[in-house]
Design goal:
Layout: H1 6-23, E1 29-32, E2 39-45, E3 57-58, E4 63-64, E5 67-69, E6 74-79, E7 88-97, E8 106-107, E9 121-129, E10 135-140, E11 145-148, E12 159-166, E13 169-178, E14 182-188, E15 191-197, E16 208-213, E17 220-225, E18 230-235, E19 248-254, E20 260-271, E21 273-275, E22 279-283, E23 292-294, E24 304-305, E25 308-313, E26 316-317, E27 323-334, E28 344-347, E29 354-360, E30 373-376, E31 382-383, E32 386-389, E33 393-400, E34 406-415, H2 419-422, E35 426-429, H3 433-436, E36 441-450, E37 456-462, E38 466-468, E39 479-485, E40 493-499, E41 503-508, E42 512-518, H4 523-526, E43 532-538, E44 544-548, E45 556-559, E46 572-577, E47 583-589, E48 598-600, E49 604-609, E50 615-619, E51 628-630, E52 634-639, E53 642-643, E54 652-659, H5 664-699, E55 757-760, E56 804-807
Parallel strand pairs: 7-9, 17-19, 34-36, 44-46
Antiparallel strand pairs: 1-6, 2-5, 2-7, 3-4, 3-6, 8-16, 9-15, 10-14, 10-16, 11-13, 12-13, 12-15, 14-17, 18-27, 19-25, 20-24, 20-27, 21-26, 22-23, 22-25, 28-33, 29-32, 29-34, 30-31, 30-33, 35-43, 36-42, 37-41, 37-43, 38-40, 39-40, 39-42, 41-44, 45-54, 46-52, 47-51, 47-54, 48-53, 49-50, 49-52, ...
Length: 834
C-alpha cells in the first residue's frame, strides 16, 4: 500500500472500512469523556434523510437523529442502518480558556482517539481563547499546509480551517490542505482550529502543536518555508470577502540561499479609504530602504535572494461605501539563471511614439511545477510582462529558466499632420539595435503610418524586391511584412510579403500598418539585408498599386487584397507589370470564373499595354480572360462592385517571362524584299546620274530667272490639312544646278540657313501612362473563356523601326505620362506650396 498513490490508497481504504461497517451493522459504541476535559462530542445528520431511507441513533432509552456527549459523561449507542457514514457526522470540540487559568501548550492529541469513534466523517475543533496581549502560535509538522480558497476540497479529504478573533468578531484566516509550505501561523486574542477527517481515513494524530508567544501586534503572521523550487498561493484574511478594516497581516517567507523569489499579484481589490492608504510593505534582506512600500496596482518585487516579509495594511474605510479589500498572490521560488546577473540597457531616449512590451509566449498549461519567467526593472520590480516607453533609457534583467518562453512586441507611429511638410519625405522602417541585442525573440514590430485624409498617400519601397505569400508560392523566410489598412473602420489587408520576389513598390491610398513578424531566431542575421522605406506621396484614389518587375527565372503569383474576406466593395487595385526588352510576359488567371454577383454597380478587369492606348475590358461577373502574351509593360486593374451577401471578389493570377522569338519566314521575306528594293534603287540612281550628265553636255549651265512677285522665303513650318490624304506634303522641288539667287537664303552672318531636320519614329503611345479608367457601369464588355492549360496565344513578330529623315515634320502634342503615381481618375494634384 505504501507504494500506491495517495489518491488511490485512501478511497480503497474507505471502501474496505465501509464493507467492514456493513458487516457489523448495528454494532454498539461507547464514548466516555473525562471530567474537566472541556470536550464535547456531537453526532448529528450531515445530510437530510431521503423519504425511503431510515437510519437513527439507538440508545437505551430513545431513538433519535442527534446525540450530544459532554465532559464527564459516558454514553453507549448504535445505528439502525448498516451505513451510517452516509448520513451522520461526528464533531469533537475542545475549549481551551487561557484567560481563566494556565493554557495547554505542546503537541495536540486527538481526544478521544479515532479508534474509539464510529466510522463517520469527523471534525476535531480546538477553540482557544487568550488575552489581546498574548500571541498563540500553531506549528505544523510535515507535511506542511497549502492554502486553498474556501469551499475547495482537498485530494486526500483532510482539511484545516483556521480562524482568529478581533474582539467578538471571528476572522477567517484560511482553508488549508496538506503538502504545502505553511509551517506556522501566529495569531493574537485566540484561535479557532478545525481538522476535518473523512470517515475512512485512519489518521490518529492532529499534526500540529500550540505555543505561547509574545504579542505580534497584528491580526496574524503566516510563515511559508521553501526547501527547493516551487510556488505558493496565499490569500488575505476573509478571502474572498473583505479584509478587516485598518488591520495588518504579514507573511514571512524562508528562502534557501541559492534560490530566488518573485511575487506576483493574481487578484486584488481595494476599498474606499477615508484615512490612511491601503498598501503592501516588503522587508527585503540587503535593502537600504526597508520597508519598501508598494501599491497593490504596482509591479511587485522579484529576483529576491534570502528570507523576506510581505505585509498587507488596510485603511479606515468609508462607512457609507466601504468597498472590499482582498488580495490573492503567488510567490515563485526558483534557481537563478545566468541572465539574473546581467543588466541590459535599452535606449529609447531618441525614439518618439514608440512602446516595447516583453510578455509570455502562449503555451500549454502543465500540471508539474514550471519555473516562472520574469522581467525585472531597475527598482527590483519584476513581473511576467513589462512595457518600455520612448523618451528614456531602461535597465532590465531577466529571471527565467528558459527565455524562449518570452517574446517582444513593439509599436511605433509615424504621423503627418501637415501635408505640405511631409510630401516626398521618407522614413526607414528599421528595428532599433538596442531591441535586437536583447536575449528575447522579437515577435512583432509594427509601424503605423498616418497621413491627412484625401491629402497624401503612402509608398513602401523595399531594399530587396518582395514576394507575396500565396499557397502556390509560400514564404519560407525567417520574417515577413504584413501590410494592412489602419484607418478607423477600414477592413483592408493587402497581404503578407517576404524577400525574394518581384514587387518593387507598394502604394496605398490611406493610413496603413506595416508589421514585421518573425518566425525564427535567424531573422536577426537576415534583417540587415532587408528593409522598407516609407514615403509620403501625392494622394491617389485607388486602394493599392503594386509595381512588379518579374524575374525571368521564376513565375510571379499575385492576388487581390483581403484574400480571406474578399476585396472591399467599390475598391480598386492595380498592378504595374514591367516587361524587359527581348521578353514576353504571359498573364494567366488561376480560375475560370470569380463567382461574383454584384448587387449594385459593375466589377471590371482592365488589361492595358502601356505602349498603346488600347485596353481590354472584362466583366468579372462573367468568364475571365484566357492566357495572354504581352510584349511591353502593361497594367492590370481590378475594380469591385457592391457584391451580394456571401459573394467575394478574390483573384489570383500568374505572370511568367519567356524570350521573344521571331518567325523565320518573316525574316526571309524581309531580307529578299529588302535586297530587291535595294537593287531597284541602285538602278534608278545610275540612270538618273547618266541622264543629268548628258543634259549638262548638251545645254550648258542652267540659269534661274528672278521673279519679284514670288515669295522667296524658305518655308519653315508647313501645315498639312487632314483632308489632303492623297497629297505628299513632304515633296519639294529640287534645284540641281547652281542657284543664281542663293544670296536670298543667306543669314545675317553670311551663312546659309539649313532646313530643319528631325527623326521620325512610329508612334508608341504614352509610355507608362495613366492607369486605365474603367468603362461606364452600364456597358457590357465582351469576355473570353479562360482555359488555364492553354498556352499563351501566338503573337506577330515585332522589329525595331528604322529612322527616317525628312524636312519640317509635324509637331506631335502628346507627351510621356507620369509613371510614379498612376490614377484611376486623373485629376490635378495639389502642390505643397498651395
Amino acid at each position: 500500500m505504501a507504494g500506491l498513490n495517495c489518491g488511490v490508497t485512501l478511497p480503497l481504504l474507505g471502501v474496505l472500512l465501509l464493507g467492514a461497517a456493513r458487516l457489523t451493522g448495528g454494532a454498539a459504541f461507547e464514548i466516555g469523556l473525562p471530567r474537566g476535559s472541556s470536550i464535547t462530542v456531537s453526532i448529528e445528520l450531515g445530510t437530510p434523510l431521503l423519504p425511503w431511507k431510515h437510519c437513527s441513533i439507538l440508545t437505551r432509552t430513545l431513538t433519535t437523529t442527534s446525540l450530544v456527549i459532554k465532559s464527564g459523561e459516558t454514553k453507549g449507542f448504535s445505528f439502525s442502518c448498516p451505513d451510517p457514514e452516509n448520513y451522520f457526522v461526528i464533531e469533537i470540540q475542545r475549549n481551551i480558556d487561557c484567560m481563566a487559568g494556565p493554557c495547554f501548550f505542546g503537541e495536540v492529541q486527538l481526544q478521544p482517539p479515532t479508534s474509539g469513534l464510529p466510522t463517520l466523517n469527523r471534525t476535531y475543533i480546538w477553540d482557544v481563547r487568550a488575552h489581546k496581549r498574548i500571541g498563540l502560535e500553531l506549528q505544523f509538522s510535515l507535511p506542511r499546509l497549502r492554502q486553498v480558497e474556501p469551499g475547495h476540497s482537498c485530494p486526500d479529504g483532510i482539511t484545516h480551517s483556521i480562524s482568529g478573533r478581533i474582539d467578538a468578531t471571528t476572522v477567517q484566516i484560511g482553508t488549508f490542505c496538506s503538502n504545502g509550505t505553511v509551517s506556522r501561523i501566529k495569531m493574537q486574542e485566540g484561535v479557532h482550529m478545525a481538522l476535518h477527517l473523512p470517515w475512512f481515513h485512519p489518521r490518529n494524530v492532529s499534526g500540529f502543536s500550540i505555543a505561547n508567544r509574545s504579542s505580534i501586534k497584528r491580526l496574524c503572521i503566516i510563515e511559508s518555508v521553501f526547501e527547493g523550487e516551487g510556488s505558493a498561493t496565499l490569500m488575505s484574511a476573509n478571502y474572498p470577502a473583505g479584509f478587516p478594516e485598518d488591520e495588518l497581516m504579514t507573511w514571512q517567507f524562508v528562502i534557501p540561499a541559492p534560490l530566488r523569489a518573485s511575487v506576483s499579484f493574481l487578484q486584488f481589490n481595494v476599498s474606499n479609504c477615508e484615512r490612511k492608504e491601503e498598501r503592501v510593505e516588503y522587508y527585503i534582506p540587503g535593502s537600504t530602504t526597508n520597508p519598501e512600500v508598494f501599491k497593490l496596482a504596482d509591479k511587485q518585487p522579484g529576483n529576491m535572494a534570502g528570507n523576506f516579509n510581505l505585509s498587507l495594511q488596510g485603511c479606515d474605510q468609508d462607512a457609507q461605501n466601504p468597498g472590499t479589500l482582498r488580495l490573492k498572490f503567488q510567490v515563485l521560488v526558483q534557481y537563478p539563471q545566468h541572465e539574473s546577473n546581467i543588466t541590459y540597457v535599452v535606449d529609447l531616449s531618441k525614439e518618439r511614439d514608440m512602446s516595447l512590451s516583453i510578455e509570455p509566449r502562449p503555451s500549454r498549461q502543465s500540471r508539474r511545477f514550471v519555473p516562472g519567467c520574469f522581467v525585472c526593472g531597475e527598482s527590483r520590480t519584476c513581473s511576467t510582462n513589462l512595457t518600455l516607453t520612448a523618451g528614456s533609457k531602461h535597465k532590465i534583467s531577466f529571471l527565467c529558466d528558459d527565455l524562449t518562453r518570452l517574446w517582444m512586441n513593439a509599436e511605433k507611429t509615424f504621423s503627418c499632420m501637415d501635408h505640405r511638410y511631409c510630401l516626398r519625405k521618407s522614413y526607414p522602417l528599421q528595428v532599433p539595435k538596442d531591441i535586437l541585442q536583447l536575449p528575447v525573440q522579437l515577435h512583432d514590430f509594427s509601424w503605423k503610418l498616418l497621413v491627412p485624409k484625401d491629402r497624401l498617400s503612402l509608398a513602401l519601397v523595399p531594399a530587396q524586391k518582395l514576394q507575396q505569400h500565396t499557397q502556390e508560392r509560400v514564404c519560407n523566410t525567417s520574417f515577413s511584412y504584413l501590410v494592412a489598412g489602419a484607418s478607423p473602420g477600414q477592413d483592408l489587408y493587402l497581404g503578407s510579403f517576404c524577400s525574394g520576389g518581384a514587387i518593387q513598390q507598394i502604394q496605398v491610398k490611406q493610413n496603413i500598418s506595416v508589421t514585421l513578424r518573425t518566425f525564427a531566431p535567424s531573422f536577426q542575421q537576415e534583417i540587415f539585408r532587408q528593409g522598407l522605406t516609407a514615403s509620403f506621396i501625392p494622394y491617389f484614389k485607388e486602394e493599392g498599386v503594386f509595381t512588379v518587375t518579374p524575374d525571368t527565372k521564376s513565375k510571379v503569383y499575385l492576388r487581390t487584397p483581403n484574400w480571406e474576406r474578399g476585396l472591399p466593395s467599390l475598391a480598386s487595385v492595380s498592378w504595374n507589370i514591367s516587361v524587359p526588352r527581348g521578353q514576353v510576359a504571359c498573364l494567366t488567371f488561376m480560375k475560370e470564373r470569380t463567382g461574383l454577383v454584384c448587387q449594385t454597380g459593375r466589377a471590371f478587369l482592365i488589361v492595358q499595354e502601356q505602349s498603346s492606348a488600347a485596353e481590354e475590358v472584362f466583366s468579372l461577373e462573367e468568364v475571365l480572360p484566357k492566357p495572354s502574351a504581352h510584349h511591353h509593360s502593361f497594367w492590370v486593374n481590378v475594380s469591385n462592385c457592391s457584391p451580394t451577401s456571401g459573394k467575394q471578389l478574390d483573384l489570383l493570377f500568374q505572370v511568367s517571362l519567356s524570350p521573344r522569338t521571331v518567325d523565320l519566314t518573316v525574316i526571309l521575306i524581309a531580307v529578299v524584299g529588302g535586297g530587291a528594293l535595294l537593287l531597284f534603287a541602285l538602278g534608278l540612281i545610275i540612270c538618273f546620274v547618266r541622264k543629268n550628265r548628258k543634259k549638262k553636255r548638251n545645254k550648258g549651265p542652267a540659269v534661274g530667272i528672278y521673279n519679284g512677285n514670288i515669295n522667296t522665303q524658305m518655308p519653315m513650318q508647313p501645315k498639312f490639312q487632314k483632308a489632303q490624304k492623297d497629297a505628299d506634303p513632304h515633296v519639294y522641288a529640287v534645284i540641281e544646278d547652281t542657284m543664281v539667287y542663293g544670296h536670298l537664303l543667306q543669314g545675317s552672318n553670311g551663312s546659309f540657313v539649313q532646313p530643319e531636320v528631325d527623326t521620325y519614329r512610329p508612334f508608341q503611345g504614352p509610355m507608362g501612362g495613366c492607369l486605365p479608367s474603367p468603362p461606364p457601369t452600364c456597358s457590357r464588355a465582351w469576355t473570353v473563356k479562360l482555359a488555364p492549360e492553354d498556352p499563351c496565344p501566338g503573337f506577330s513578330p515585332e522589329f525595331e523601326s528604322e529612322p527616317y529623315t525628312f524636312s519640317h515634320p509635324t509637331q506631335r502634342s502628346g507627351g510621356n505620362g507620369n509613371t510614379e503615381v498612376p490614377l484611376l481618375d486623373a485629376h490635378e494634384v495639389e502642390q505643397p506650396g498651395e
